[in-house]
Amino acid sequence: MTDAPPAGNSPTTNDQYVRFVNVKKSYDQRNLVVKDFNLDIKKGEFVTLLGPSGSGKTTCLMMLAGFEDVTSGSILINGEPVTNIAPYHRNIGMVFQHYALFPHMTIAENLAYPLKVRKISASEIKRRVNESLALVELGSFAKRYPGQLSGGQKQRVALARSLIFEPSIVLMDEPLGALDKNLREQMQFEIKRLHEDLGFTAIYVTHDQTEALTMSDRVAVFNDGIVEQCAAPEILYEKPANSFVANFIGENNRIPGTVTRIENGIAQVQLADGTIATTGNTNCPPEGSPCTLTIRPENLFIASTISSNDALDNRSLENSIEASFTTRLYVGDSIRYFFKLSSGSELMVKTLNDHRAPVLQRGAMTRLTWSTAGGLALDRSE
Amino acid sequence: MHGLRLTAWAVLAFLMVPILVIIPLSFNAEPYFTFTEGMLSLDADAYSLEWYAEIFNNEKWLLAIKNSFFIGLCATIIATALGTFAAIGLSNPVMPFQRVIMAMLLSPMIVPLIITAAGMYFFYTQLGLSGTYLGVILAHAALGTPFVIITVNAALSGFDHSLMRASLGLGAPPIYTFFNVIMPLIRPGVISGALFAFVTSFDEVVVILFLAGPEQRTIPRQMFSGLREQINPTILAVAVLLVVISGLMLLTIEYIRARGERIRSGEI
């Protein structure tokens, strides 16, 4: 957790619209599923809880919705603790992975349900249902049953139903998990559009890192009940707090080493084969500690492909290491080259599929280079 | 292939003939339990409706019919309510000791009826319930509940529990959720369970023998004493009426089941 909020009841602002304060959760009174979760969410923000399955992210969402009790700690909405409020009084919209549409009601009846519960007049319900159907472009489906709709259409109805009673907070629990890839991208776009148009506060749970990066204002990376880092997508990708985040978000090359010196914002790392490399010192462990040198595949280059008049020369590639080529993967727009270091670490280089993409012999010794800014020295736990 | 078909018909005959044979016999013009020569030669005079008329002229039979329906309906209402709530509770994934509780709730189906009846007799007598309508109704409700648990449990096995959470999240309190989301979806299971519970009570004679006084005589109980006291085809006429009622219920259950399946697959 990078920036834990101060505990206690400080005056609320729009920056602390939803607050999790020291929240812990255990199902069996022995093991904590969520260990000390702290998070402040701004009004209107789109925050994603990202993590592998079983990391506690869905549990946090269910505690906010009121479907799970909080073992200790508190959850506040707009400054009010909600831990003792029943879920049906919390006024929070929720979208489930498997849609959870009522199969015995038509689409219009599904949308009218939360309004009927709130005893809104029939004419007003009719007006809002039509408005809502138009919003998700399903106007002609009002009289159909959920069983007659496709997955994407069902999820659009579920989304519309979670918004129709104008909740200020909408929770989404892996809402696109059951859809195929094309539909998923289309729905990401749709959710983003609704969020921007309507301005609700969105808390989104997913294990898909691309989804998290493209949709969110901020992403909280969960691992084993704790938040490893909570930050904007570009910070997570470019300045990960630790090696778990660096590996979970995007692809990464990892070489074990030791921090030998930190000076003027630059860290010096000695690798297993004796090579000295320099990196930025963001989140770098102290001098003398073991570390993991991480380099994104797109920041690593094959030295022989860089000619003197190449644009890349404007960036100085200070570091280099000797590696033997093992194999390459043709992806289409890019090509991935795999190398092995003498110390046994495997490296991957991602190159655009253009005239620079080299042809290499298996086992050929090659120099790989990268810039100081292209790598990071992060923690190594062994 | 031929042999297999023959066997199938033989099995069907084995099951059905004892039931079907009473139908023509109940129209016997003579007060016997056997086919007369006139009946075998299809002489119209050998048949009559007098035993059916007898049912409705005999106070004992009328009381028995009234009792059967009254006790059956009351027991069904209790069994359906108890069984439905038990099944919903047992379907909750966080419920501890699910299997043990389920086995205990279903035990009245497995334990020989005579043992249950004897136990009830001693227990209900202590409470002053033997020989009362309340006692018989409670006993029959206890026998019918397991059927409701089984059918509702089956209906709930395909039930998506996130629907309950969805309903609560949309602002509906638990009772509203029960009547508007859970109940419509498990209704086929509840109705077929209720029919089974009703038939159980309607057919039951052992518990009645132990617990019921002359006031609470039901149709089966009346048939039982009829067999000993006054052997005449009125019993057969009653039996035919029971067969017809049971058959109608079977058809109803099948219709409800098929309809429930259609709703679940979303093609109403």
Fold topology:
The complex is a heterodimer of chains A (382) and B (268).
Chain A: E1 18-26, E2 32-41, E3 46-50, H1 57-65, E4 72-77, E5 80-81, E6 92-95, H2 107-117, H3 122-135, H4 151-163, E7 169-173, H5 181-198, E8 201-206, H6 209-215, E9 218-223, E10 226-231, H7 233-238, H8 243-248, E11 253-263, E12 266-271, E13 276-280, E14 290-295, E15 301-302, E16 319-330, E17 334-340, E18 346-352, E19 365-370, E20 375-379
Parallel strand pairs in A: 3-8, 3-9, 6-7, 7-8
Antiparallel strand pairs in A: 1-2, 1-4, 4-5, 9-10, 11-12, 11-14, 12-13, 14-20, 15-19, 16-17, 16-19, 17-18
Chain B: H1 2-20, H2 22-25, H3 37-40, H4 50-57, H5 59-91, H6 98-110, H7 113-126, H8 133-157, H9 162-169, H10 174-203, H11 206-211, H12 219-229, H13 234-264
Helix pairs in contact in B: 4-13, 5-8, 5-10, 5-12, 6-8, 8-10, 9-10, 10-13
